[in-house]
Amino acid sequence: MSEDIAQDSSGFATRARIDTTTPHSARFWNYFVGGKDHYEVDREIGDQIKGIFPGLVDVAHTSRRFLGRAVRYLAGEQGVRQFLDVGTGLPTADNTHEVAQRVAPDSRIVYVDNDPIVLAHANALLTSTPEGRTAYLDADLYDPEAVLRAAAGTLDLSRPVALMILNTLGHVSDYEQARDLVRRLMAGLPSGSHLVISDSTATSEGMIAASNAYNSSGAVPYHVRSVEEIAGFFDGLDLVKPGVVRVPQWRPDEDGGDAAAVDAYCGVGRKP
């Protein structure tokens, strides 16, 4: 994105980049989690996929609850005070900064996305407690070093950081490239940092059919992977118990961590 667009406070230039004729992953997901930031084209493919595989709605909701549990665990039990959320998506309720600062008001959170629809809503994310700080970066997952350089304006990268990549890596079609991007991001973070990942998985015919339908809609494709491939993102890290599991099964608590057999897996790993 050019600097003049990034600094366009009126939002007109950003909105001009938003395509409302093609389904969009952030708007589609926002529709599934009960948000309000979507268009008819997103609702149409969303309703089509609900007809093919209603379980994707459960994936959306349970993945969102996993985010809350993971952030509460890191801020509350591990004392993490810095979060780098890559592939932010559209704001709904209980975003990373809200959960973290509820536990630890001095937490600092950097959101990263390079999508115009997300950028247009960035102001909704740019809130913070007086003690902490929240920032938004228009940056690209495919350039991890640039992400880290920009994040260093808000975060102290000599101290532990929680790297959050939720429901995002499926946009990287090549698995080895996705692993390399994760490795490069984690390489710039110190010992004691954590990696938090959740993603849809090719663990049922319904999910595979839903993925194929979505990818045929004209939207940017999203590739569901095997559980083993999700686990591979944590190579070299110490997995937090219970390891790589279905999202409702990761340290369930009173938030409704049900036993639904959703087609999405997650994990949290600590950098030694």
What do these coordinates show?
By secondary structure, this protein is of the alpha/beta class. The chain is about 40% helix and about 15% strand. The protein contains twelve helices and eight strands. Helix 6 links the parallel strand 1 (about 80-85) and strand 2 (about 110-115). Helix 5 (about 55-75) packs parallel to helix 6 (about 95-105). The longest helix has 23 residues, at about 55-75. It is globular and about 45 Å long. The N and C termini lie far apart (about 35 Å). The model is unreliable at about 1-15 (pLDDT under 50).
- Beta strand %: 5-15%
Total number of beta strands: 8
One letter per element, helices H and strands E, the order comes to HHHHHEHEHHEHEHEHHEEE
Average pLDDT taken over every residue: 85
Low-confidence stretches: 1-14
- Global morphology: globular
Give the fraction of residues assigned to helices: 25-40%
Spatial separation of the terminal alpha carbons: 35 Å
Short overview:
By secondary structure, the protein is of the alpha/beta class. It has 12 helices and 8 strands.
Protein topology:
Elements: H1 3-6, H2 12-16, H3 25-32, H4 40-52, H5 55-77, E1 82-86, H6 96-103, E2 108-113, H7 116-120, H8 122-125, E3 133-138, H9 144-151, E4 162-166, H10 175-187, E5 194-200, H11 205-215, H12 227-232, E6 238-239, E7 245-246, E8 264-270
Parallel strand pairs: 1-2, 1-4, 2-3, 4-5
Antiparallel strand pairs: 5-8, 6-8, 7-8
Helix pairs in contact: 3-4, 4-11, 5-6, 9-10
